[in-house]
Amino acid sequence: MAATAPRPRTTTRDPEELTRRLTAWLRTRLPGAEAAGVTVPESNGLSSETLLFDIRHPERPAHACALRLAADPAAYTVFPVYDMPRQFRTMRVVAEHTDLPVPRVLWLEEDPGPLGAPFFVMERVEGRVPPDVMPYTYEGNWLHAATDEERERLEGATVDLLARLHDQVPRTAAEFLALPGAGDALRRHVTAQRAYYEWVVDGLARSPLIEDAFDRLEDIWPRDPGTPVLNWGDARIGNVVYDGFAPAAVLDWEMAALAPREVDLGWTVYLHRFFQDLTVAFGQRGLPEFLRRDRVEARYAELTGHIPRDMDFYTLYAALRHAVVMLRIAYRQAYFGEVAVPADPDTLILHHGSLRAMVQGSYWS
User: Fold this and answer.
1) I need a surface site. Which of 133, 277, 331, 360 has the fewest CB within 10 A?
2) Sorting pLDDT into bands at 50, 70 and 90, what band is 3?
3) From the candidates 234, 264, 310, 346, which is the catalytic residue?
4) What are the Cα distances from residue 300, in Å, to 179, 183, 191, 305?
């Protein structure tokens, strides 16, 4: 998905039919209720779908809700599995063991019958989200227009979310997020990413760059990954609702896992760099002082006492993971006839230049 391109297709579902079916399901949980004002937010992701709606009931005040619906199986899904009970449980665990602002989850529906896929409903939190399209690093949005002090406040509060998450959730409460396989949590995490990559390229052109990146990970593998913690997974500011410049809700837990702290930190650092690099490539200055790697690492160490280590490895790993997702999204666009697959599949990865520099060890120099 190019920063300046139209959003790729993500669903084949009919919004009006979804509204009818959602109201019918809602009445099985709350007789007399109806789903009103059903909308799809502009910030809707490229994987699971989000619906915003109000619960209207003749004997109760209106209640603002959000619904997370597993990806449309007919829409060339980004991930092979959408485990909605796992996401629902993760949010409950985080709410129970931390003071993070996690929206209260209301209902889980595992039966795909009512809406065509499993889903869960949670309370909706009002606020604003840094945009992905056009990215917040571009001119013309609230975060770019903020002062340096306001962005610094948002940055610090966001790193604080990670620190509190990693420190406050007991490992025993997060064991259900341990990935299968042999080895420690980091080895299992990378093994799962390799399996995901193989699924993405099954029957399609492979990516030499992604495979080089996997090989480079082995060359710089951490000697001691440390004790794993509950990782948010998609730890980036685009998954936070902000009230002013303070986090009001932490969203999107579908990539949560038990992993080293630096997996989340590397993702936070690199996902900003992804947008920053694209912005610079399109001729704008972006936000070069925002979410800088050294500042994120220093802030996290100050809050937790844990000094981030092997961050060259973890930022490369983040760029690699993002590349696999981007490749899948590009192949989905090709499936829907939105793009043609070029002779060199690596060019489908928007950040192929920065990923190659990371593989070569020159990106951070």
Assistant:
1) 360
2) very low
3) 234
4) 25, 27, 27, 8
